[in-house]
Amino acid sequence: MATDVTARFRYNAAMPIAAFVALCGTVPLTVAGWPFAFVLLIPFAVLVWGWRAGVDVRGGRLVVRWPVGSRTIEPADIRGFTITHRRVSAVLADDRAVWLPAVPGTRVPVLAETLDLRVAGAPAAAEADDEDPGEPAEQAADTAADEVTASDEATVSDEGAASDDDAAPATGAGARPSTPAR
Q1: Where do runs of H (alpha helix) occur along the chain?
Q2: Whether the predicted pLDDT of 142 surpasses 90
Q3: 169 or 55, which is more confident
Q4: Which of 20, 37, 21, 17 is nearest to 29 (CA)?
């Protein structure tokens, strides 16, 4: 077993503890009759799931652990992460999604950082080092302000001119069709 784990994501320890208590509570039910023996499987499955399932980053690789097995994923194979209904999945290069148990959506930046992946919206470390310390922030702010001003002027000029096809749906990048007022 490797000891170079740089990040570990697991479920709360209360889950396997509660499953163990439930397992102890179902033992008297099985004594009542063997048809009830299958009830022991439910808390046992939850106990194993809570104890084993999770995600590790070992040696720069992503190791996804399930109760029955595990899978190792190279960071070069990861194209991105998706978060749907509080479930995080890693999207691989071949467009398959691998669910990452016990990884909350708020911890995706930490996971990406430990895998040396770039998070969208954050500047890369190499880009931050190459920038001139005094000028880039001001220059970026001026450029963004110019872009906003140009788009505002285009919007104002479009709204000022009335035409016969106001009811026609708008076209183009980012345009939404108009909806009738109620």
Answers
A1: 14-32, 41-52, 108-114, 125-130, 136-160
A2: no
A3: 55
A4: 37
What is the C-alpha to C-alpha distance for residues 30 and 38, in angstroms, rounded to an integer?
8
DSSP state of 16: H
Three-state SS for 89?
strand
Helices (H) and strands (E) in the chain, counts: 5, 7
Amino acid letter, 84: T
What is the bridge-based pairing of β-strands 54-58 and 61-65? Answer: antiparallel
Strands 5-10 and 97-99: unpaired
Local confidence band at 37 (pLDDT 50, 70, 90 cut-offs): confident
Whether this prediction's pTM lies above 0.70 is answered by no
DSSP bridge partners of 98:
90
Q: What value, to the nearest 5°, has the Cα angle with vertex 46 and ends 44 and 52?
A: 100
Q: Exposure pattern of 73-83 as b/e (b: 16+ CB <10 Å)? A: beeebbeebee
What is the spatial order of strands in the sheet that 97-99 belongs to?
78-84, 87-92, 97-99
CA angle 69, 72, 77 (to 5 degrees): 140
Instruction: Please list the residues that pair with 88 across neighbouring strands.
Output: 83
Angle, CA 173 vertex, CA 168 and CA 176 arms, to 5°: 40
